[in-house]
């Protein structure tokens, strides 16, 4: 039985924070792959709000360690307002990215909503990267490598105070899963902050099931679960359509188990799908896979269970 509120798709067609062009085509690729139809097939009411508008990508070099900071702020403000409005209306927002810098807007909105409603927040960050760079330690200046740091209060005021209060997130509210690419300076900061990371070495050692049980520990009926799904979380052998491929990610069955175990909690309240880059894809196979996994996140199971 469907227990979810209406699901709202919000497109954010920009690659403003990325190091490669093409993530701006992600929302349309997900639509072409049938995301609305697939979710309706799960018995969900689906509303597609279309795409948000924002500045074009000027494709300029970094200034003070940030590329396109002004434009990144504008896009994230648009995302924040759109996601917050949906949460206030009682719907379940799904952000169709776009690059992962947009999670600053969506998660800031979710965190504000949770504070105002007195709910606990748990963020599951499914990604190959920790995204905990700052302008001082970043090797590239690309802001899609900084959203977790900014959400935890490490970054420019324009981004750390997007929603007024800073930090939007406490490190204890986030679990990072699938990590396998961390820059040297970023690694030290992550350790200093005490971020809870389930990297691929750990997952290989203890298995996906146990890792997910640990990552979901404490999630209860009073918890809003936000899933920030970077498609490069997946092994590039099955998901080539990303700008920053990192070998050694979860395979198809492991990724399905991750999504199924999240679905089992019944607490998913919002979702990002980001970093899908059709320019690097093969016949939209990565978008189709992402849709397949999102179906599992909303209850489709390959297991013979009641």
Give a quick set of tags describing it.
306 residues, alpha/beta, Arginase, Chain A, eight-stranded parallel beta sheet, 11 helices, arginase activity, Ureohydrolase_dom_sf, EC 3.5.3.1
Describe this structure in words.
- Helices cover 36% and strands 16% of the residues.
- By secondary structure, it is an alpha/beta fold.
- The chain has one domain: Arginase, Chain A.
- It has an eight-stranded parallel sheet with strand order 2-1-3-8-7-4-5-6, with helices on both faces.
- Helix 1 crosses helix 11.
- The termini are close together.
The tally of strands reads 8
Basic shape: globular
Mean pLDDT: 96
Order of helices and strands: EHHEHEHEHHEHEHHEHEH
- Gap from first CA to last CA: 11 Å
Low-confidence stretches: none
Strand content: 15-25%
Radius of gyration using CA atoms only: 17 Å
Instruction: Count up the helices.
Output: 11
Kindly summarize this structure in a few lines.
With 306 residues, this protein is an alpha/beta fold. Helix content is 36%, strand content 16%.
Architecture blueprint of SSEs:
Layout (H helix, E strand, L loop, with lengths): L6 E6 L13 H7 L2 H7 L4 E6 L17 H20 L3 E6 L5 H15 L2 E7 L20 H5 L5 H4 L13 E6 L4 H10 L2 E4 H7 L1 H8 L7 E8 L21 H14 L2 E7 L10 H13 L9
Parallel strand pairs: 1-2, 1-3, 3-8, 4-5, 4-7, 5-6, 7-8
Helix pairs in contact: 1-11, 3-4, 8-9, 9-10, 10-11
């Amino acid at each position: 039985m469907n227990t979810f509120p209406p699901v709202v798709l919000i497109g954010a067609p920009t690659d403003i924070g990325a190091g490669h062009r093409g993530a701006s085509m992600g929302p349309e690729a997900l639509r072409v792959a049938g995301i609305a139809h697939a979710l309706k097939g799960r018995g969900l009411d689906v509303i597609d709000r279309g795409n948000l508008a924002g500045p074009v990508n000027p494709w300029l070099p970094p200034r003070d360690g940030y590329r396109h900071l002004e434009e990144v702020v504008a896009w994230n403000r648009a995302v924040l307002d759109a996601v917050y409005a949906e949460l206030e209306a009682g719907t379940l927002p799904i952000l169709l990215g776009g690059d992962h810098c947009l999670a600053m807007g969506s998660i800031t909105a979710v965190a504000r909503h949770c504070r105002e409603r007195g709910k606990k927040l748990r963020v599951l960050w499914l990604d190959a990267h920790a995204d905990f760079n700052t302008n001082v330690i970043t090797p590239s200046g690309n802001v899609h490598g900084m959203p977790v740091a900014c959400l935890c209060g490490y970054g420019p005021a324009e981004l750390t105070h997007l929603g007024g209060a800073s930090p939007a997130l406490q490190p204890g509210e986030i679990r990072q899963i699938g990590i396998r690419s961390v820059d040297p300076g970023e690694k030290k900061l992550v350790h200093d902050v005490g971020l809870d990371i389930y990297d691929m070495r750990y997952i290989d050692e203890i298995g996906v099931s146990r890792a997910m049980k640990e990552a979901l520990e404490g999630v209860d009926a009073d918890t809003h679960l936000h899933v920030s799904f970077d498609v490069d979380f997946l092994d590039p052998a099955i998901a080539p359509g990303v700008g920053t491929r990192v070998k050694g990610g979860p395979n198809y069955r492991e990724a399905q188990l991750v999504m199924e175990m999240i679905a089992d909690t019944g607490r998913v309240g919002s979702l990002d799908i980001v970093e899908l880059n059709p320019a690097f894809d093969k016949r939209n196979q990565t978008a189709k896979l992402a849709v397949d996994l999102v179906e599992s996140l909303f209850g489709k199971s390959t297991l013979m269970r009641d």
